[in-house]
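Troubleshooting: if your tokenizer reports a length mismatch, compare against these two reference records.
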Amino acid sequence: MNQIIQKLKTFFENKKIVIAGAVLLILALLVWLFMPDIFEKARIDLQGGRVINEQLVVPETKEFVALEGTTVYQSQIQVPLNPKNNAEKIIVPKAALTVKGGYALAAPEAILWSPDSKPVFIKSLGAVTLDGKSSQWQLAFSSKTKPQKGYEIVIQENLIVSKKEVDSGAIGADFPKNWFDSDGAVKSLQALPQFSEATISAINFFYNHDAKRWRYGIATSIGSTSIAVE
């Protein structure tokens, strides 16, 4: 009799384990479907490094000038150019696009605004990663057929979140045929010994009208620097 009771007890305990496992599996599936960020955060944390989750804000731009593209300002998030270990690595989950990626997304909208639109500058407004990506980009365009007007497009992650005509007297220019992306600009700094201990916080892509060349401007902890793209 005792053996029968023990077998029944074991049977029901096993049933409880199976039911509990099924419930946990269903809960995990529901979280994965409706709260995917939790799984993404866990995946990123396993890689090591400090995860930066930004609260992105669309700027209230009413006008822009070409000088804005040439001036690179330090932002709050400093990313080591040459992290020595995982603790120094900065991971920005919302950083989805490089300069070229941002332009590819915005260019069709700029053409809809004005078929002869030309880029004036592209500026990171969010954190910048070592692969040249940012969580937020501001792109400025000009048009000869719309004097004293410009067009601003703001991208967050990989979506356009704002597009509007604003006042501007800035003049844009065609991109060069062969130009390297923002990841190449970051890599060029990583290779220089004077930047071995430096951090970066912002990237601009702008046209220098005096030299008639496009350049990258990068804000670093030891000052801003610029790199010609060809």
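Reference record two:
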Amino acid sequence: MRHNHYLFIFLGSFVLLCMLSISLSFYANPYGVRFSQEKHDIYNYFGGTRTAKAIHIQEGSYDAFILGSSRSEIGIDPTHALWGGLSTYNASLAGSNFVETYKVFQTVIQQKKPKLIVLALDYSLFSGARSTSGDFNLSRFEDSNSSFSSFFKEHLSKDSIEKSFRALKYSIKGLPPKHYQGQKNGSLTFTKVINENGQHHLVFNTIFKKVITNSEAYPQEGFSSSRINLLKELVKYCSDQKIQLIIFISPVHALQLMTFKQIGIWENFLSWKKELSNISDTYPETPIYDFTDFSAFISEEVPSNASDTTMQWFWETSHYKNTLGNLILNRILTLDGGDLSTPFGSKLNQENIHSELTKQRLNLDLYEQKHEALLNHVKALIKESR
């Protein structure tokens, strides 16, 4: 009888703790879940997690989606006026690969047929060495998860409890949310680091840690053909279902492209673009824009080590600001391709791909000649990494 008494106390305590945890998650709402059918803004402190974005896609009602990596998550504004009357959600995932992107796409089309998908591509998405995150495997994006496991992850897991307490703390302090409509706040992400160490330090720290020593994102063996095939499946589905699809290659700073050449993956990068142009030839209704075409925007000057100035278009070499993202939207969402005095973005197809790649090789050579100090700095970092 005594054992039964203790068992009853244990079970009662366990049920109470579960109820408290569930209540806390609903009250703090760390993932920004909609609790009614009324349309309202989605903002929260932890919206960049796979868990949150899967919930938003499944429980929201959107006409358009942005798919991609952290570059488009930070740089592309889903609330910009150029989307017109479309309700747009930024479903881009930081640190992802194209397997994840494809599963996000599958989640989107399972809900309802979208009117528009804007797909932002990065070369690193197609690295065969880049694995799928544990957070993704536990989210609703992974269709092998049951309703129970998803509920546990979102309301009863250690991760959800920690996020609930942190969301409460941040809300009480009146701190701004990190995500709005799925877009990560770049200013919150980078400004503090820039103010402490300067943008020059952030730029070369990114080059060293995210490019030179990041063999998972930028392996020597090149891009994965199986992930290219997933892209072809995505494009074919949109073509068959008459879903408007716009593809663009996210801009990176010219310094990062120069680093690609120095670590030996520049030609692989160009070959990847050629593969994309083949897709455009098969599906001419799907435009593919390249924003790594050595425009004045991606070649803006990197602040010197002693300078307290910051770049206008980039946070560092990998992530671009909303200011540049808005120019991308102006280019891809307007009929005239945007009214820019300085050209930005090239449309890739089989007719122009060879001339485009030849031009980009030449422009990279010219960039290296004009920026010898930056080139030597990159070479020194590569030597340091070995």
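Descriptive notes for reference record two:
- Residues 82 and 335 are 11 Å apart (CA to CA).
- The mean pLDDT is 86.
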